């Protein structure tokens, strides 16, 4: 199989049905990828990046290899096994050497640290003797890992189609201490677990942080006032304030796609209903009414609809309504209960938590409730969030007992479940958009 | 502002001791005057009349719920009847109702469920004459379990509403 074929398989399989009307062979590839059977990650050779500081060149190449490996779509080859150990972005590779080594996809990179960090990268198709990516980037000198993520995204986008998701961050709840009296504070890190910073000191409980689309504003649940209340936190300034003064308790916030509105739950007298409020202030608008628990609102990418969970029919299930409220339709009908619906940034799927058969499951379904597939099941798994390209979901799982939660990711075909290493227990991940 | 202070260590220990008594009492007979007979066995641990410790140990400071339910069981109503009588006798205390859920649910839903349970207890106590102006409530969702394990007997102790007198 040539690289071109493999690359086509990757691209076509991931692009979806728009490209169905091609040859028999690509249709077969498409089916293989979507069903998750017989999928083969693309082998790719990434020698250390050329640099006047060879350790730095190796470090950057390691980050790129790690990103691509963790995507599950690529299989970076052991650098020590490669015919060339250090990249060369200036010359044309000796394609025969690479073909003999069974390498179809080859990444040649360089990186230098000066006033800025500069990196160049070329990706070669050795079978076709053709360059498929050639790019150069500069970042500020404190962003060494970011340039590796930006390069990774460029490679991913060319070979796998769609947009990348490596130059992103995750905000989450860091948990420590005994389970009966656990400290919970907000933390932020790069998507691969590097560069952790703690944002709150743990003196009051902080839960369910969610990024605004701009990646600077965060909304979360803060217990500083006794009952939990929704707060807004600006990362760049560290300033925060309570979002709304309505009901006894406010929680479960999430931004609209334009970042201008937050939908959230308001509890009063045991009833929990959905409201929305402008982040600039003003009066909250009530979206649902009744004695049930309505929570977990999530906007469609075009902002026109809200998916949420409600126990109005007995057990928690997923419902859909217009963003202005009213006329909610139930969309989940499987056995057990459904909660934490989150709309994919591409609009095609809704991720959720399902409880059935004594287990918790992370799954996806179409916005009309059809095509449900469970991606990960365990004693306890909860709280999906989407990578900005809509192909990877992060969530948290907890083995129970005195143990604590850990972040995991899985792709939308249920492949490649991975634990994201964190120095504390971790829950409530929220994935940022690609950084600008 | 800090979180409202949970039970202090001594009270918490007393509460746990009371658990043992309640469980033993329940296993012997259903609607026995739960806690009263047990309190006698505790001797001085029962606390002086009108003390917080008496409320926790002798009256019983908490009620339990079925899975995903906020309905009061007959045992829960019996405990709340005693709480109401005590609270109506000792009117100097302010009252915080804490609502809790077990870990077999999602975080946000359980925050709401804890609030619903607390609300049911508030409504019951006020229906028994306790002045609603003395009562505040707070939900902790599933974030503050008292029993840690991986089985049903344990989770049932975490599905609770706790009446804190302060």
UniProtKB/TrEMBL annotation, chain B:
Gene3D superfamilies: OmpA-like domain
Domain OmpA-like, first and last residues per copy: 52-166
Pfam families xref list: OmpA (PF00691)
Position of the signal peptide: 1-24
Chief localisation class: membrane
Subcellular localization, as worded in the UniProt entry: Cell outer membrane
GO terms classed as biological process: cell division
GO cellular component entries: cell outer membrane
Entry annotated with the keyword Iron: no
InterPro entries membership: Bact_OuterMem_StrucFunc, OMP_bac, OmpA-like, OMPA-like_CS, OmpA-like_sf, Pal, Pal_lipo_C
UniProt entry keywords in alphabetical sequence: Cell cycle, Cell division, Cell outer membrane, Lipoprotein, Membrane, Palmitate, Signal
Top-rank taxon, per record: Bacteria
Function noted in UniProt: Part of the Tol-Pal system, which plays a role in outer membrane invagination during cell division and is important for maintaining outer membrane integrity.
Alphabetized PANTHER family for the sequence: LIPOPROTEIN YIAD-RELATED (PTHR30329:SF21), STATOR ELEMENT OF FLAGELLAR MOTOR COMPLEX (PTHR30329)
Family: Belongs to the Pal lipoprotein family.
Subunit structure: The Tol-Pal system is composed of five core proteins: the inner membrane proteins TolA, TolQ and TolR, the periplasmic protein TolB and the outer membrane protein Pal. They form a network linking the inner and outer membranes and the peptidoglycan layer.
Protein name, per record: Peptidoglycan-associated protein
Species, as recorded: Devosia soli
Origin organism lineage: Bacteria, Pseudomonadati, Pseudomonadota, Alphaproteobacteria, Hyphomicrobiales
């Amino acid at each position: 199989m040539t690289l071109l074929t493999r690359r086509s398989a990757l691209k076509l399989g991931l692009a979806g049905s728009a490209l169905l009307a091609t040859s028999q062979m690509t249709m077969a590839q498409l089916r293989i990828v979507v069903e998750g059977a017989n999928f083969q990650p693309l082998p790719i050779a990434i020698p250390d990046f050329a640099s006047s500081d060879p350790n730095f060149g190796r470090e950057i190449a390691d980050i790129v290899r790690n990103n691509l490996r963790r995507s599950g779509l690529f299989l970076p080859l052991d650098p020590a096994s490669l015919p060339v150990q250090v990249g060369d972005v200036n010359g044309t590779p000796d394609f025969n050497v690479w073909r003999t080594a069974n390498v179809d996809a080859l990444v040649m990179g360089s990186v230098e640290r000066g006033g800025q960090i500069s990196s160049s990268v070329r990706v070669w198709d050795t079978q076709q003797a053709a360059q498929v990516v050639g790019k150069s980037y500069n970042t500020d000198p404190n962003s060494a890992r970011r340039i590796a993520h930006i390069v990774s995204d460029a490679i991913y986008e060319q070979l796998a189609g769609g947009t990348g998701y490596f130059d992103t961050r995750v905000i989450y709840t860091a948990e420590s201490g005994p389970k009966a009296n656990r400290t919970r504070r907000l933390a932020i890190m790069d998507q691969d677990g590097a560069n952790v910073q703690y944002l709150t000191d743990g003196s009051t409980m902080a839960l369910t942080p969610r990024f605004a689309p701009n990646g600077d504003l965060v909304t979360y649940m803060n217990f500083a006032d006794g009952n939990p209340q929704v707060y807004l936190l600006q990362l760049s300034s560290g300033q925060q304030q309570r979002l709304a003064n309505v009901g006894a308790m406010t929680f479960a916030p999430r931004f609209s796609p334009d970042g201008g509105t937050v939908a959230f739950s308001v509890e009063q007298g045991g009833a929990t209903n959905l409201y929305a409020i402008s982040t600039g202030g003003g009066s909250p608008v009530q979206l649902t009414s009744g004695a049930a628990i309505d929570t977990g609102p999530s906007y469609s990418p075009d902002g026109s609809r809200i998916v949420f969970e409600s126990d109005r029919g007995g057990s928690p299930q997923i419902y859909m309504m217009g963003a202005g409220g009213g006329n909610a339709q139930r969309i989940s009908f499987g056995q057990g209960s459904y909660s934490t619906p989150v709309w994919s940034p591409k609009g095609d799927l809704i991720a959720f938590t399902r409880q059935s058969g004594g287990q918790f499951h992370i799954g996806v379904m179409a916005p009309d409730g059809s095509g449900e597939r469970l991606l990960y099941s365990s004693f306890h798994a909860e709280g999906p969030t989407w990578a900005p390209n809509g192909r990877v979901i992060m969530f948290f799982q907890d083995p129970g007992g005195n143990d604590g939660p850990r972040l995991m990711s899985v792709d939308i075909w249920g492949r490649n479940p991975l634990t994201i290493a964190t120095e504390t227990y971790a829950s409530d991940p929220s994935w940022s958009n690609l950084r600008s | 502002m800090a979180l409202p202070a949970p039970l202090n260590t001594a009270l918490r220990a007393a509460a746990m001791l009371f658990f043992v008594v309640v469980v033993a009492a329940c296993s012997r007979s259903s609607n026995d005057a739960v806690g009263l007979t047990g309190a006698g066995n505790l001797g001085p641990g029962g606390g002086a009349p009108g003390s917080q410790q008496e409320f926790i140990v002798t009256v019983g400071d908490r009620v339990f719920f079925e899975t995903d339910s906020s309905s009061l069981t007959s045992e829960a109503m019996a405990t709340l009847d005693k709480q109401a009588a005590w609270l109506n006798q000792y009117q100097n205390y302010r009252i915080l109702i804490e609502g809790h859920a077990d870990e077999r649910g999602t975080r946000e839903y359980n925050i709401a469920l804890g609030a619903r349970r607390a609300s049911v207890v508030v409504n019951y106590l006020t229906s028994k004459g306790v002045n609603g102006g003395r009562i505040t409530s707070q939900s902790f969702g599933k974030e503050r379990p008292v029993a840690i394990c991986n089985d049903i007997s344990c989770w049932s102790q975490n599905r609770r509403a706790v009446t804190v007198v302060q």
